[in-house]
Amino acid sequence: MDSFFGIPSKYSGRVPSRKRKRNLPSSLDQQRDCIVCFDGNDFVLCDRRECPNPYHPSCVKRDNNLVHVKENLNCDTGGGEFPYSTIGEDKISDMPDSLLHHILSFLRIEDAATTSILSKRWRSLWFSQLVLDFDDEPFLDASTFCNFVYSFMAMRDITLPIISFQLKCCSCFYKKEHKEDIYNFVYIAIQRRVENLYIDLSYSFTLPYFVLSSKTLSVLKLTRITVNDIPYVHLPSLKVLHLERVTFTYYEYILKLLSGCPVLQDLGTEDLLVTSPYLERPLKSLSNLLKANICNTHIEFDWLHNVERLRAMVV
Fold first, then answer.
1. Distance between CA 249 and CA 259 in Å, rounded?
2. Which part of the chain is the F-box domain (predicted)?
3. How far apart are CA 182 and CA 208, in angstroms?
4. Which residues contact 306 (CB under 8 A, 6 or more apart)?
5. Statement to judge: residues 108 and 183 lie in one domain
6. CA distances from 33 to 46, 76, 82, 88, 266 (A)
7. What is the tens place of the pLDDT at every residue in 170-181?
8. How many Cα atoms are found within 13 Å in the side-chain-facing hemisphere of 228?
9. Closest by Cα among 241, 174, 165, 162 to 201
10. Domain range for residue 236?
11. What is the rounded distance in angstroms from the CA atom of residue 267 to the CA atom of residue 189?
């Protein structure tokens, strides 16, 4: 798994040298106070008081919070073991799953993947995350990123829901064939009853129709998306809708989208674009709307003054 996730096996295949002795303490008393440490190239002896990382797992073995010297590197200690040292308890791994999941939720999924090498428990935690944040920035190309997402979703328990799903594809160069992959990722999230959906793309991507009929979506934030067909909109749970640099082919699609959000409370738009001429049409009252923020758009939202519970200013 190390090679799959791009985590180099830094210490695999290395054999400690028995001839090399660096930083050896001069006196016997000091030698009894030293431990074995890996300096990145070899096993060496160093003073426990000065070593920046004296308990490296490649250098020592753990036994009930005690550390034993793993190798005898010809140090003049009379052939005995070095004195024991106390290791601090791993209090983080003892935390409940819910708290660890919350901690992992602040990491991008590719960063959270590195925690899987800590222990079997961390690996199971990684695959059972409910908050998924996929960002293509660390990947070399679009194919590698897409393969990573497919592999993660395939290993994840299909019965687990997804609370939040964020997909950001802005760094890699995407070809036409990758659009189907993006559709698949969004479809998987919708099928897993996602509640918060964030999509940020750097190229033209048409919003899949199945997103607009999700019964579980509570937050929907779209960036650089094209909406050119809305056959049906039913978002009964959607409370937050943010649209940034979204292109609508017809103005009526905006009205249809908003009309399908009966409990909408927070509306935000920035740099909206309608590619065809539009006619002003009435919109059903958004009786639950509490906040509206309309920025940098030539589209007029005159119907906002009819919102009964509007609290925030429109800019």
1. 17
2. 89-142
3. 10
4. 285
5. yes
6. 9, 12, 7, 18, 63
7. 877 777 778 889
8. 7
9. 174
10. 97-306
11. 22
Query: Cα torsion for 45, 49, 50, 52, to the nearest 10°?
Result: 90
Average per-residue pLDDT in the chain? 70
> How does 166-188 read in b/e, with b if 16+ C-beta sit within 10 Å?
bbbbebbebeeebeebbeebbeb
Distance CA 238, CA 197 (A): 11
- The predicted pLDDT at position 62 comes to 35
Contact 238, 220 (CB under 8 A): yes
Residue with tokens 């590195």: 114
Instruction: Determine the length of the chain.
Output: 315
Distances in whole angstroms, Cα of residue 222 to Cα of each of 52, 198, 263, 304: 45, 6, 19, 21
Together in a domain, 157 and 73: no
Q: Which residue, 170, 161, 230, is CA-closest to 196? A: 161
Q: How many other C-beta atoms are found inside a 10 Å radius of the C-beta of residue 20?
A: 12
Q: Which two tokens stand for residue 177?
A: 């064939």
- How many domains does the chain fold into? 2
Instruction: Please state, as a whole number, how many other Cβ atoms lie within 10 Å of the Cβ of residue 69.
Output: 21
Three-class SS of residue 11? coil
Percent helix, strand and coil across the chain, each to the nearest 5: 25, 20, 55
Note the helical H segments in 138-272: 142-155, 176-191, 251-259
Is 314 part of a structural domain of the chain? no
Q: Are β-strands 273-274 and 247-248 bridged in parallel, bridged antiparallel, or unpaired?
A: parallel
Name the DSSP class of 215. Answer: S
pLDDT digit string, tens, across residues 121-160: 566 666 667 888 898 888 888 888 999 899 888 878 788 8
Neighbouring C-beta atoms of residue 271, cutoff 10 Å? 15
Is residue 311 a part of any domain in this protein? no
Q: Answer for the pair 261, 234: CB distance below 8 angstroms, yes or no.
A: no
